[in-house]
Structures are given as structure tokens and as C-alpha cells.
Amino acid sequence: MKDLGVNAGGIRTPEAIKAELQQFYERMAKANGQTALTSTHEHATRNERYGSAFYPDEALDGLPQSIVAGSIACGNPHAIAALQPGEVVLDLGCGSGLDVLLAARQVAPTGFVYGVDMTAEMVELARRNAATVGVTHVEFRQGEIESLPLPDHVVDVVMANCVINLSPEQSVALAEAYRVLKPGGRLTFAEVMVDGDLSTFPISEEDIQIAMNCAGCIFGALTVAAFTHLLEEAGFTEIEVIIQHRHTPEELLNRLPAALQSRLQALDPSVVRELIGCFTSSVIRAQKRA
Q1: Pick the CATH number of 14-287 from 3.40.190.10, 3.30.9.10, 3.40.50.150, 3.40.630.30
Q2: Labelling 42: which of 152, 154, 261, 282 has CA 20 to 30 A away?
Q3: pLDDT tens digits, residue range 19-38?
């Protein structure tokens, strides 16, 4: 997804970004939909590059292969969600349904989970996955996170897994999350976040962002300070960022464009490790005022 959303004039527009993201996730949904949905995690292969690598084995037991191997995410928001029976949960950019189905287990028997995704193919795949495992207290809706198809003040928890970074209108998406939360509700996100100042390195920040996007589907990664500021502007309080994982050269270097690999190899290895280590898989929690 290099140069994501750049139009013919070389300008990155929200519409172009959304169109390219939709095409990408349509392809992923079709590829995962070809997997036999009756195959469970007992016989499944994790996708070590994406979200399922962040979940303990016991959490994934019994889930379809199309979820376990096809999770397109960067962390595990459930690690800090502390979901309770009876709560109503919304998962932004739900994809094939991994976090929705995990949340459904935790809020059962009286809770409910909504999943929203911009891609019709992903919504259909998520519905099939839920039917496969017999989960009924969930609902998947097609929609954009910048204009959520839910009324005001209806959910206790908003979750997201590597989704807010992809939005070309991040402040709007966070305002929508705030809108649908009940007073006193909370959010729990997993995102790729930059821990540090990229401007201090001997390579442009734009090149770094594009390269990391190619390596790990990382687009629009914000610094911890910038993400915190956006949450505060949306009205959230009690904001906390917890780093789950720092990326390493061993994980990412061989996925970078050849030209950039060559440039990085000319740098001191300690500088390269520090640079790549600024990109983290982190979890964020925050509260809506009661």
C-alpha cells in the first residue's frame, strides 16, 4: 500500500485513501473467504505478521481458520478492555470478526457486540464466521468509522485494532467514537504508534512512514503525543498508552523496498535498530466523561 491514496495529481485525498483501502480489504476478504470455514484454530496457522500473533492460544481456540490466519491487525485490545457480562461493545473496522467474536464471549449472555466495516465483503465474511461458531448476540453493519451507523450514547465500550491510523480523518473518527459511547463509557484501541521523534534520524520522516507502510501495513502512524492530543480534543479523559511490542530490524528489513534497504544498510546498525524500534504496537485506553 505504498503511496496510499495518492491521486493522479500526486495529492493524497481522503476519498482516494478510502477507495484504495476498500480495494485492499476486498482482496483480503475474498482470499480469506476461500478458506474452509469449518477449520478451527486447532488446525489453523497463525498469521505471525498481523493481529492473531498478539493473542494467547486459548483465546483463539475454536475460531475459524479464516479469522485466525486472516486477522489484519497490530495488537490485542482485549488485553486492557476488561469487558464485563452485559456490556454493549462496538468494534471499529471489524474485518472478518476476530475481536467481535472474542468480545461476544466476554459479554455473554446478556451483552451485545456490533462490528462495523467499510467493506461489504468483510461484513459478509464476518457474518459467515459468526454463524460458523454459533454466535448470535452480534451484528455486523457496513459503514465508515467517520460516520458510524449507530445512534448516540448506545455502547459501553468502543474497540479498534489498527484502524484509526488508516483513517484520513482521524479526529472525525475519534469524535464519532465519543458520540456513540454512553456517558462514562470507555475505548480500548490497539494501534501502531511512534514512540519518539523521527526527525532526529538521517532519513526523512516521509520515507520512513512509506517504508514502514510497505513493511507492515502501517499507514498514518501517529506519535504517542499526537494521538493523545486527538483523544483529548475529542473529549476523552484518563488516557493511557501501553506499549505491547517494539518492531525490530529482523522483523521488517527484508520487507522494505530494495532502495531503502540499501540506504538503511549504510547506516550504523544501532541507528537502524533505534529507528525501527520507534514503531510500536501499543494499546490505548481512555474514558468518556460521565
Answers
A1: 3.40.50.150
A2: 282
A3: 776 666 666 656 665 554 44
